[in-house]
Write a structure and sequence with these properties.
By secondary structure, the protein is mainly α. Helices cover about 75% and strands about 0% of the residues. The chain has helices spanning about 1-25, 30-40, 40-50. Helix 2 (about 30-40) packs antiparallel against helix 3 (about 40-50).
């Protein structure tokens, strides 16, 4: 049981950490991502994700 708990925690932290690193790399904040996800307009979400592209 302990091995399963540690394995689950390690996987969770790895995936969460990678996701936060990618969000940070794209210069997005959780506030902007949440706001874009709750709106009905998909084009604005695409604008947010591509705003850092040269």
């Amino acid at each position: 049981m302990a091995i399963a708990t540690v394995s689950h925690a390690m996987q969770y932290l790895l995936v969460t950490g990678a996701g936060l690193a990618l969000i940070s790399h794209e210069h997005l904040s959780m506030r902007r991502v949440t706001a874009a996800a709750t709106e009905d307009d998909e084009p604005e979400l695409m604008e947010l994700t591509h705003s850092s592209a040269p």
